[in-house]
Fold this protein.
Amino acid sequence: MRSKLIDLVRAYKFPNLVMGPNRPDCNVTPKVITLVNVLKGIMDQEKNNFRAVIFVHSRTSGKALSDILNKLSPMLPGMRARALVGIGAAVFDPNADHLSKGQATVQFRDGTINTLIMTSVGYDTELPRYSIGILFDAFDGLSAITLQESNARKGAKVLLILTEKGNQRDMRALATHSRKRRRESISSVSSESPFSRNRSRTTDSADEEEDERPYIVVPGSSTAMSARVYPEEAPQLLMRYISIKEKAPLTLNAEYRAVDENNRYFECTIHFLPSAGMEDVKSEACPSKAASRRRAAYLACEELNRRGLLGDLVAQAKRKLKSLTRAERPSIFDGEVGVALEKKMAKERNKRERGSKLYPRKKLDFWQDSLLHPDSPLYPLIIHLDTGDMVLPDTYRTLCVLTRVPLPPIRPFELFFPELNKSPDQAIAAPVMVKLLPCKSFHVPPERASDVHRYTIRLVRSATSKQFFCLSDQMVYYFLPMKAGWTLPTGSVGEALTPAIDDAIDWGDVETAASQNGWLPLDRRNLEDEIKDAIIQDREMEFTRKYRPIRVRHDLTPLSKPEDSPREQEYASILDYCRAKRRGFEGVQDESQPLIEVDKVPEPLTRLSPHCRFHVNTKRIPAKYLIPEICVKYCLSLSSFRTAMLLPCIMARLEERLLARECNDALFEGRLDEGQLCQALTAPSAMVGYDYQRLELLGDSFLKYLASIYLFVTCPTDGEGAMHVQRQRIISNFSLKFHSDRIGLLPQYIQVRQQGPRQWWPPNFRIFNPIMSPVLDAKEKFIQGPPDPLVLLPNLGKPTANENGDSSLLLATEEKDGDERGDNVAKELTASGHEATEPPSDPMAYSARERRALEDEQQQDLGDKCVADVAEAVLGAAWLTGQRDMALSVCHILGLPISRMTSWGYLKDRAPEFFRDDVDIGPVSMAKVRAVEAILGHEFKHPFVAAMALTHPSRTTPELPGYERLEFIGDAILDFLTVRMIFTRWGDQPEGWLTLLKGAMVSNAALAAAGVELGLHKYIMHDSSHLTPIISAYAEEVTNLKDEDLAAAQMEGRAPGEYWVDLEPPKVLSDIVEAVVGAIYVSDSFDHTGYEDVFDRLFKPFFLQHISLSTLAQHPTKQLFEIAQRRGCRQFELVKSRADTELLTEVQCDFIFHGHILGTAIGSTSAIASRRASAIALERVRAEPEILTVLCQCKQVAPEKGTPTTYQVTIPDEDS
């Protein structure tokens, strides 16, 4: 009868599908239409990568939906759908082509099927990653939870749930599916457990009118009603039971056996661990492995129910398994402020890429606070350039800066003058010390107050080429020139107070610069005297090209065509050139007047970096000769103008010092050295000649040292691996950045922006705009001529008041025709935020340009690593200031989670816990300890600790642990001592050199060689049969290499080198050296003098004898970096990654040059891999030198004008 019904259904002619929802003959439900539209959109997007899984409740729905989707090939091209249903379908229709789970997985992966429709029987199927999962029809609460946690659901990129509008059953199922509301629906919708619900549909069989499946009644559960457990739910409950017993998430250990020849029926045996307290359970023969597994689990649950254990499992079904199996243990971070929040943030750390964050930027309080004081008296500081034995080629007028309140003592600082270089190829500009020498207070004469104010504005405008002005009551500092030729009185440079400056000020120069016009007429009757210490301009405007006169050429006239002046070579004479290029020029009155030979005044240079260079502008050919009749003299003398060009850099250095002082007072109670703190707060991107990188290296090693000994003492039972994980909670960049943010003050003091003439914006200065003229007093601005005339600017609709009726005064212009110059004026007005067509309601309101500048000054974008590096650099500055005590205090100020260690005495108090003097280490161990004491020249106060340092993990016993924990702190101690030694000896070297030196000294190879030279390898206690020959072979080989290197060094007249670099040592040798150093520290009750003495006597001479800057000069990495730097190239790096080899500890290193890999190598450590990769790349570069020219074009790219060039070299460090 059943087969006849099947044949009848197959022979039935179903009508065609009509999809239009608005058509009267539409025969498809809205849910199917929505499903089709969703699938069509995903298929169009994914193309050949499209995969979808549709979850249905019954196998009838699955079969029907599969047929419908395959018939919609015109709408869904490429659709290949199959249904995965339960074993009941095979019984119902044995002749059909049914899909097994194995077939579904294979065909879904290779694309034979791209849409898989499954019922709940496929939940445990392992599927590859697919595009979308769609829940087609409603599930009850438990089924939704089971689907969410199933293997089939895990592969979906997106899970879409289709529900019918107004269908309360679907809406309840949707609410149940939500994780947040799932608990509410389980506990509040019904007081019973999910397992107690009598569900009408729990299988994929829609043709069963009544659920006749067996179930277990759990009368003793904590629910209000008796719970039912069906066979489908038994495996999940049983897995929870064994996981809770084992305190770890486990799966069922199921073993299957086929009971017939065709492998159609299977038996399943579930094996239990001893902790479960149950015998193995075996099922009857079932038509599939899954069915036999469910049956065996069901039988085991019956046994649990007889023991009264199943009720608690059902009651805890809604609890996460992780919460039931996790064993909580006390942490050293318990009670630390901010650590709970750090844990939450750490979860988000891996969810999004860490980058940067906007922080408030600290403005200097000193200047704004000074406005509370009157502008008389003023407190001057002489700007003194101390060149030492060098002589500047040009004359610089001595200026003084005057402030409303006395400035604190400012240490001398460096500016760099490339004009003092002995050769043009010299990479580093010569430094000149700038000293700010305080003088007696100065009362500005009332009649001179306006001139002082205007002179300061003139200097600022000259240095920046911007139309700055500042209201007199808002000006925080002033500038005044000293008389030409004025020098400091003898002996005053080193004194705290110099004589008064009242009679030394050049008031004539002040009056000239403070005049209404920015230029003076040129007296052609006395040209020789007129051009002395003067600046010449060929246009009557403030912002234009400025020239330094060299001499008067009486042998040339305007009718001459000088051969050494390229600018006029296409014209008959200089006069013809002027007629062609100058707008409105008709000629000169005196065609026989001499010419002035000039040289263009260089543009202001950022002299904060030793890599500064003058920019050569090749776009325009400068003038070499000027006609005096059309020239004017600038209002500033040439010597004063030169010093004015230094003011942006001088004030930047001054403000850096003042900001570091404010940071010191606000955060560190004024206890840190301000010079070191200033370096620690400066990022390399500021390009000011120093940065935090050296101090960061020192602070990083100190923090590693501190965190290691803190964890050693606080976690006495933790192993090396656990302590390493805990140490990352303290020293990682994420931790440092997090705690710096939590304290909230340090990031705002970090200096990351370049400073110089182009960036200088003095406090309270504004950009002048003509619309401000009606509300400004004439003394507050420089108006060239009466303010009444209006000019009609080109490209502007209405006339606008200008400074003197000449549109060129609003902008620093070059030799352009009138139309272009007018366009620039319009652009300047628009850029300033003021429309020229209608005046603003508030003429003194900040323009858009100024608002952007103010907003930019108030915040800065800092990278996460930059904040962490600054925190480490501050620790380095603290150590240099006050050694261990100061550095520990700064750790607490920065909020690092080491609050238990309030002082170094904390370690001494905990020291007795580690001595174990009651343990008898035996005569053999004692003999080895005494031998090591003789080698070190240091007596161990507690031999047990020394014996532990010599014990290999293969010989570990409960009474005598191995050396891993001592090696953990010994590694950090040696790292810190080595960096401290390097910093003391080579602290003035670039950070890349210091990193390279450190990596060479604390590498496993160097420490192993040192251990062999001392003889420590002879006293390792171990029970490993293969370790002895390995150690002996290495010791013999490295000793031979040492002898060969010493002989070669003596013959070649050089220092001994790193003879061990080409050998890969057994790690146990470096571990023993580190463990012995750690044992000295612990045995001495954490007194640092013991290990410092041993290091200075034994390790320091060894390092200095074999490792130095001269020996590292042959390092292939160093040579490669130097080759790249000589080309002006910065696009090179060494990239370290985990090697794809059988040994998971091996490291791969690639030398990448402009995105191309020149060398690749694999080694046991990053130092070995990087050296090998660099050697391969260096050999290739030497064999194919043209590869540099092909890949690198950096040398041909001109640097940005006024921007110094620096090279940030990253040299990989050794993994300890």
